[in-house]
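Board notes (copied after class):
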Amino acid sequence: MNKNWLERIRLTPRLWFLLGFLGCAFLLSMGAYFQFVGGLEPCPLCISQRIAILLTGIVFLLASLHNPGVAGVKAYAILGALTALGGGAISTRHVWLQHLPPEEVPECGPGLEYIFNNFPLTETLKLMLSGTGDCAKVDWTFMGLSMPGWTLVAFLLLAALSLLQFWNAKPN
């Protein structure tokens, strides 16, 4: 009659959303590590992806803390998937820029600090979402994928984790 501890743990949506939040926190900490310890300066698309990871993490944290019923789990699942897929779209753009032939790479833009201080908001958002020539540079790879490639994989996994809560949601 004494079940082992793994069989007693029910992986509720609350726990899955918490694990998703922890995954987002890990991704943000890795970005900070590569920036501040590894010396890799983030480009506009990198910053945009970090913002999307942060937003996805916030949705997951709120879902975990709120611990809603079935309808709430589904609402959080949709919102989490949308933020993750939005980040995935940014990552896809970044990977695409990295695979352009050198003659088709857009021109490099001014530094992010200059952009934030001197450009109007609409132009800043355009640069943050479309990227510059700086975004085409590959500074790091692991198993053949660049950092934006791995970030795209992470966003797709986060979206899947979020949407899987539709089938995991049970009335309290």
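Comment from the instructor: Helices lie at 5-8, 13-36, 44-66, 70-98, 112-118, 121-130, 147-163, 165-168. The mean pLDDT is 86.
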